[in-house]
Every structure is written in structure tokens, then in C-alpha cells.
Design a protein that fits this description.
Elements: H1 20-23, H2 49-56, H3 66-71, H4 78-82, H5 84-113, H6 115-128, H7 132-151, H8 155-190, H9 198-227, H10 231-255, H11 260-285, H12 301-322, H13 325-333, H14 335-343, H15 346-355, H16 359-371, H17 375-402, H18 404-411, H19 420-427, H20 430-433, H21 437-445, H22 449-475, H23 479-503, H24 512-535, H25 541-563, H26 566-581
Helix pairs in contact: 5-6, 5-10, 5-15, 6-9, 6-14, 7-8, 7-9, 7-12, 8-9, 9-11, 10-11, 12-22, 13-14, 15-17, 16-17, 16-21, 17-24, 21-23, 22-23, 24-25
């Protein structure tokens, strides 16, 4: 299984985004902080800033216009409604760019570096992503506290929160240099690395570490674009980072014999661009914030770190489910198998990336409905989000499941067609698991991250044990994604979905029907793809694309008139209508 990033700059070495989208947004509260007012409690105008400042350990008073200012973060405000279509379409543009580049980039790296070297790229990425335990925990705290400060109009408190968080991120980066350096040095002792690739792999691992630390510091600045709902500007920065990472490697490969070192150079330059972009957006979108060491308050460290404690537990669990696969493959099956497995990870990555077209927009909307006491609106948003995501994801996932063998044969070569079962296990569960992502925002709003973290950690440990057992039982590469699919689906269906429903005042199975719609749609698309490929095996990209187009048109019409409700159809039509008039 593979994460995507909706929050911060990627630290990927082969197009794999950071894990923050799956963890940071799911773990934005610790369970130790006093709850925000429940949605069925008193109206928000009766809240006072004193309660928030007491939680952060600082003083401050609410500005006279705080209530009015807080309204502008609601679901119907200018920054949310006006930019909704632009945000979604800019995400679609970024996804299109990402898909196009990665479809070329992965075979390019495999053919120029070889499977073993490409496997080392994926291994380096998996190792450094464990820094997300610190990175996402801190950045999720900043998003929550700074968002509350800015939304309530308390600029003084916002500046104290920002500067306290910034110094924490710098200190954390300095501390994280120790495990990065240690892992680089001990790499050949800890993992199976071909002797001729040890030095280059160490450099790539160090480069990915630099990118992760830049994302840690840049994340404090980057939350401004999330709070202000300017995903369009954020996607511009992400596109530049992606173009730099890929473009530099392409140029260096053309000028010199291909090497992993070139990939590392591209990562370091991309990290610099990402950090600079986050800072520029911070200055543009939140000019009221400034860097001022005198505003650092040590009393705010404990709440910021405490908020991230349960976030860290949740992140560790997620990592054990979603990022341990490459490590297990390397340890049990060797470098060549690692390269083969890593080569098809692009597809789940792209599915995650597709979810970014709408997922980042939903998080502020959920928090706004919760803060304003709109319980019915929150229920409707949660149900509609899950249903539409499941319907939307069923199409690309079904196409991959139904036409995986010819796709792999055309893209990477006939030798990779036998990985179709592995591909199916990687992507099929995402129909359910990504559709429940909006419900993680509900858990965040209700401060349920403690329970979520404990459940995820326990299931993460179970995933590691299951994956090892499945591989040793003779399932080979398929055993690793099979374990993750089982555990990840159990978490999202049995805990995230049911717990969110109860918190919203619904029956515990309220979301199961919406998830079942997506599952049926995915199965139907996959079956149709299998039938077409069995009758007429695609011999080229044109025939494969033709099959996909026919299935897409058939499924699109069926989903629009059968799966979608009248309100869903009106929403979809309004999005395109707003875009055409903007």
C-alpha cells in the first residue's frame, strides 16, 4: 500500500509522495487537549479566545471582530466557495502532470539504472518516511492550533503559535540528523544492498533525508495555504518541485552515465524549491504572521508536542501498514524482488494522488461545519463525500484490476505481466480505504485521535507479522500487499467508518452502503475489463486506451444515473457550471 500527500512537499525518490495525507490529516489531535465545543452545543459566538489561549499556555484576548472573522472560514465563505472549482481543477492539473511524468519516469529509471538500483530508491524512500512520525505530528499540531488562532482573528496568539512551532521544527530537524546519519552509515549492515550500490544508495538516502527535513520546516509555513484554502497556489509549488525532481535527473542522465547520485541531486534541488515556495506562499497568504524570536513561548511547546503524541502513535501504525512492505520484501526476497515490487507501486500512488483532487478541500469544510455547530450539514457532507469518492475511485481502480496484465506488459515489458495479482492487491482495497478518508477528518474534529492511534498501532503490528507469515507461507510478493489490504480495510471499515457514524449521531453502519456502491462499481469495471481483454487482447497502447474509453463511458453513464442521487448530480453539475462562468 502506498500513501499520498495532500499536506506537504513530497520526499519521494520515485514519485511516491509523502505519507502526510494519510496520517497528518487523520491524526490532528492528541486526546489530551480540551475538546472544541461539540457540534450540538452552544453557538460559536459564545466561545471565547481565553479558552484557547489557556490550552496553549499563553495569554491574549480576542479581537473585537473575531466572531466576524471566524465566519469567513465557513463552508460558504469567499475563500472556500469561490475557489472550490479552481482548487479542484488545479489539483486535477497537478494529478495529470504527475501521472504523465511518472508514467515516463519509472520505466526510464528502471531501464537506465536496473531493477536492483531502482529497488534501492524505494528502500531509501521507505526508510526516511519513518521521519513522518515527527514531521506529521508537529505539522498536524500547527495546522490545528494556528488554524484556530487565525480563524478566530487572534493575530497575536497566531504569531506566538507560529514562532513557537517554527523553532520546534528547527530543533526537531537538528535532532533527526542523528538517525539519518546513523542509517546512512549502517545501511549495508541493516539491509540487502548490492556492494556496487552502497555509496550511491547512501547518498540517495541522505538526499531523501534532506528533503524530509526541508518538508518539516517548510510545513510550518505551508499550513497557510491550507488554512486560506489556496490549493491552487499550493499545486503550483508542488508542480515545480515535481518538474525539478524529474527534469534534473533527465538532464544529468543525458550528460553523464546514469547513477543513483543524479537522483539524489534532483531531490536536494527539489527540496530547496519546495521550501522556498512554502515560505513565499506564507508571506503572500498570511502577511499578518512574522518571524520574531521574541514571540517564542516555551509554555506553548508542551501543547504542541502533546497534541502530536497521539498523532505520532497513529503515524507509526500507519507506517507499519503502508511503508513496511518494501523493507519486508528487501529482507525476505532480496534486491531484485524489491525492484520488481517497487516498479508497480506507481499505480497505487497515482490512485492516492487522484484523491487529492477533492480530499484537501474537504478537511477545512468538515472543521468549519463542526466549529459552527452545523451537525446536519456535517452529516450530509460526510455521507456525500464517502459516496462520491467511492463512485469516483471505482473507475480507475477497476480499470487497473481488469486490465492490469496487458498494462504491465506494455508499460514495463512482458516479464512484469505476472505481477497483475500483486497490482490487484495493491489497488483494489483503495476503493474503500480512500473513500473513508473524509471520515478521518470527522474523528479529528471530535478529538478521537487517541483511540484511532491505538487501533492503528495494534493493526500495524499485526500487518508486519501477517506480511512475514504470508511471504514465508509461499505467497511471495503477493503476501505483502495481501496483509496490508486485510489490515487497512479492517481499520477503515470496522473503526473509522463505524466510529465516525456514532460520533455524528448515525447508526454505526451508516456509511457501509455508500462504500458498497463503490465496491460494486469497481467489481463491475474490473469484470468488464477482464472480459474485453479475454476476447481481444490489447496489442498496443491504442487498443488498451480504446477499451478503457469504452468502459469509462459506460460506467460514467451508469454511475451518474444509478449510483448518484439527485443532489449528487446537481453538485457535480454546479462544479462544472461554476468553472465555465469563472
Amino acid at each position: 500500500m502506498r500513501p499520498t500527500s495532500a499536506m506537504l512537499t513530497s520526499v519521494s525518490v520515485h514519485g511516491n509522495p509523502r505519507i502526510s495525507a494519510c496520517t497528518c490529516e487523520e491524526a490532528r489531535d492528541s486526546g489530551e487537549r480540551t475538546r472544541l465545543r461539540p457540534v450540538d452545543a452552544s453557538p460559536p459566538e459564545r466561545r471565547t479566545e481565553a479558552s484557547h489561549d489557556e490550552q496553549l499556555g499563553g495569554g491574549g484576548s480576542k479581537s473585537p471582530d473575531a466572531t466576524a472573522d471566524s465566519i469567513q472560514t465557513g463552508p460558504e465563505d469567499d475563500s472556500g466557495s469561490r475557489h472550490f472549482s479552481v482548487n479542484v481543477l488545479s489539483s486535477v492539473g497537478y494529478i495529470t502532470l504527475n501521472v504523465g511524468l511518472m508514467a515516463w519516469y519509472v520505466p526510464f529509471l528502471v531501464s537506465n539504472l536496473g531493477l536492483a538500483a531502482y529497488g534501492m530508491l524505494s528502500l531509501a524512500n521507505s526508510l526516511v518516511l519513518y521521519l513522518a512520525v515527527v514531521t506529521d505530528s508537529l505539522n498536524s499540531s500547527v495546522f490545528r492550533y494556528l488554524g484556530i488562532d487565525l480563524n478566530q482573528g487572534d493575530i497575536g496568539s497566531a504569531n506566538r503559535t507560529f514562532n513557537s512551532a517554527l523553532i520546534l521544527s528547527v530543533l526537531a530537524s537538528c535532532l533527526l540528523l542523528v538517525p539519518i546519519v546513523a542509517t546512512c552509515y549502517l545501511l549495508p549492515l541493516m539491509f540487502q544492498v548490492p556492494p556496487d550500490l552502497v555509496a550511491a544508495t547512501r547518498f540517495v538516502l541522505a538526499a531523501v533525508g534532506v528533503m524530509a527535513l526541508a518538508a518539516l520546516v517548510g510545513g510550518v509555513f505551508g499550513v497557510s495555504s491550507l488554512i486560506r484554502h489556496r490549493f491552487d497556489l499550493r499545486n503550483i509549488v508542488r508542480s515545480l518541485v515535481l518538474l525539478c525532481r524529474v527534469g534534473v535527473v533527465g538532464l544529468l542522465f543525458a550528460a553523464e552515465p546514469p547513477s543513483l547520485v543524479h537522483v539524489g541531486i534532483g531531490l536536494i534541488l527539489a527540496a530547496a524549491i519546495g521550501l522556498a515556495g512554502d515560505v513565499l506562499l506564507w508571506r503572500k497568504l498570511t502577511p499578518e504572521l512574522s518571524i520574531n524570536p521574541r514571540l517564542i513561548e516555551s509554555t506553548r511547546f508542551r501543547p504542541l508536542i502533546g497534541l502530536g503524541a497521539w498523532s505520532a502513535i497513529n503515524v507509526i501504525g500507519v507506517l507499519f501498514i503502508m511503508q513496511v512492505d518494501v523493507i519486508i520484501v528487501n529482507q525476505l526476497l532480496g534486491p531484485e524482488a524489491t525492484g520488481r515490487y517497487a516498479s508497480i507501486l506507481l499505480f497505487p500512488i497515482l490512485i492516492y494522488t487522484m484523491g487529492e483532487a477533492v480530499l484537501p478541500v474537504l478537511s477545512p469544510a468538515v472543521m468549519a461545519h463542526y466549529a459552527t455547530g452545523s451537525k446536519q450539514a456535517l452529516q450530509d457532507l460526510a455521507k456525500r463525500s464517502v459516496r462520491l469518492l467511492a463512485i469516483w475511485l471505482a473507475l480507475p481502480i477497476g480499470l487497473l484490476c481488469g486490465m492490469g496484465a496487458p498494462l504491465l506488459a506494455l508499460w514495463l515489458g512482458p516479464a512484469f505481466a505476472d505481477l497483475q495479482i500483486v497490482l490487484l492487491l495493491l489497488v483494489a482495497p483503495l476503493t474503500i480505504n480512500l473513500a473513508t478518508r473524509p471520515l478521518s477528518y470527522v474523528l479529528t474534529a471530535y478529538n478521537e485521535v487517541k483511540a484511532q492511534g491505538l487501533v492503528t498501532l495494534a493493526l500495524g503490528a499485526a500487518n508486519v507479522a501477517l506480511a512475514i507469515a504470508f511471504v514465508r507461507a509461499g505467497l511471495g510478493l503477493a503476501g505483502v500487499p495481501a496483509a496490508a489490504a486485510l489490515v487497512w480495510t479492517m481499520r477503515n471499515v470496522l473503526f473509522v467508518s463505524s466510529r465516525s457514524a456514532v460520533l455524528l449521531g448515525l447508526r454505526w453502519y451508516a456509511f457501509n452502503g455508500h462504500l458498497a456502491i463503490g465496491l460494486l462499481g469497481m467489481a463491475g469495471v474490473a469484470a468488464l475489463g477482464r472480459i474485453l481483454c479475454a476476447l481481444w487482447w490489447p496489442t498496443g497502447w491504442l487498443s488498451l486506451a480504446s477499451f478503457a474509453a469504452v468502459i469509462t463511458l459506460a460506467y460514467g453513464a451508469f454511475a451518474y444515473f444509478v449510483f448518484m442521487t439527485k443532489a449528487d448530480r446537481e453538485l457535480v453539475s454546479s462544479v462544472f457550471a461554476r468553472r465555465s462562468t469563472s
